[in-house]
């Protein structure tokens, strides 16, 4: 008689995935609302079920073993199916339309993950998404043309907004872009930026001015895809977060370029008390997005 396959414990799998994604099982304990000893027990349980170590110490940190890397991929898939099944069975009867606005940077991170999950658990809610820049987003919120808007945090704000965390700003260019001539021969650094007025454009030029580094605007665009295309073509350097950054580009880690700091992410709502459908999406984004920020900030 064939031996029955072992069924991995789903809570242990969730503990394992959460700890790896957050880079800390202490943070995983906070996220999952459990004690650190309970989290440790869950990890040991999964390793016992797997019959092998999944993580190992590297200095002060825990890193994946070879079998741990293998387990992580399967664990994510198992949890995804589990959560999808739960969402479908618990599908809400809430209906209506939600008008959502968001920055281009958030499109790839938000649309497939959050909105896909939300649509499955709220099949009667219709989402209208608008992708644009900060100024039009905040204007639409004030004029009640949008219910929710996810934007970068700048000097301008709206009456009903919530900070979701911060992401580091990075200098980004093509893999083969040579920065040396611009920083050693006083050649103006070619910048790839949005048309005025742009928070990151202002931050980039101000940081370079403070560092005494000459610069020139080499390319302007109305869209983020244009910025990424120009960077991939080797036309210059741009200042952005790593969110949505194409794999053809790299973060420039040079001590010769000034550090610019972080930029906040803000979720705006048109009214203090939203309709039920919009409130459900507001809570979904509020819960999910800070987790993504923590993952990206540790990348």
UniProtKB/TrEMBL annotation:
Looking up Gene3D superfamilies in the UniProt record yields:
Periplasmic binding protein-like II, Winged helix-like DNA-binding domain superfamily/Winged helix DNA-binding domain
MF terms (GO), sorted A to Z = DNA binding; DNA-binding transcription factor activity
Transcription regulation among the record's keywords?
Answer: yes
- Domain HTH lysR-type stretches: 8-65
Q: SUPFAM superfamilies this protein is in?
A: Periplasmic binding protein-like II (SSF53850), Winged helix' DNA-binding domain (SSF46785)
Q: Cite the entry's keywords alphabetically.
A: DNA-binding, Transcription, Transcription regulation
InterPro entries recorded = LTTR, LysR_HTH_N, LysR_subst-bd, WH-like_DNA-bd_sf, WH_DNA-bd_sf
One Pfam family here: LysR_substrate
Tell me which domain of life the UniProt entry assigns to the organism this sequence originates from: Bacteria
Family membership, please give it.
Belongs to the LysR transcriptional regulatory family.
Report the protein name in the record. LysR family transcriptional regulator
- Supply the source organism for this entry: Rouxiella badensis
Q: What is the lineage of its organism?
A: Bacteria, Pseudomonadati, Pseudomonadota, Gammaproteobacteria, Enterobacterales
């Amino acid at each position: 008689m064939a031996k029955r396959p072992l069924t991995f414990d789903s809570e242990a799998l969730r503990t394992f995935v959460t700890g790896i994604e957050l880079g800390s099982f202490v943070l995983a304990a906070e996220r999952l609302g459990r004690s650190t000893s309970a989290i440790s027990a869950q990890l040991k349980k999964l390793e016992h079920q797997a019959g092998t170590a999944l993580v190992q110490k590297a200095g002060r940190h825990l890193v994946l073993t070879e079998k741990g890397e293998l387990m992580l991929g399967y664990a994510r898939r198992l949890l995804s199916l589990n959560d999808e099944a739960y969402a479908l069975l618990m599908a809400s009867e809430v209906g209506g339309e939600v008008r959502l606005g968001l920055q281009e940077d958030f499109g790839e991170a938000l649309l497939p993950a959050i909105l896909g999950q939300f649509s499955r658990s709220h099949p009667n809610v219709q989402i209208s998404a608008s992708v644009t820049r900060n100024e039009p987003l905040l204007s639409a919120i004030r004029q009640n043309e949008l219910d929710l808007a996810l934007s970068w945090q700048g000097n301008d704000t709206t009456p009903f907004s919530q900070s979701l965390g911060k992401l580091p700003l990075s200098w980004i260019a093509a893999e083969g872009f040579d920065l040396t001539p611009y920083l050693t021969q006083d050649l103006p650094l070619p910048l790839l930026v949005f048309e005025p007025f742009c928070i990151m454009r202002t931050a980039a030029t101000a940081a370079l001015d403070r560092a005494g580094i000459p610069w020139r605007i080499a390319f302007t665009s109305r869209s983020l895809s244009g910025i990424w295309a120009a960077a991939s073509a080797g036309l210059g350097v741009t200042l952005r977060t790593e969110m949505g950054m194409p794999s053809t580009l790299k973060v420039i880690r040079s001590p010769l370029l000034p550090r610019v700091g972080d930029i906040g992410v803000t979720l705006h709502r048109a009214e203090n008390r939203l309709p039920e459908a919009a409130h459900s999406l507001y809570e979904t984004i509020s819960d999910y997005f800070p987790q993504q920020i923590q993952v990206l900030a540790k990348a």
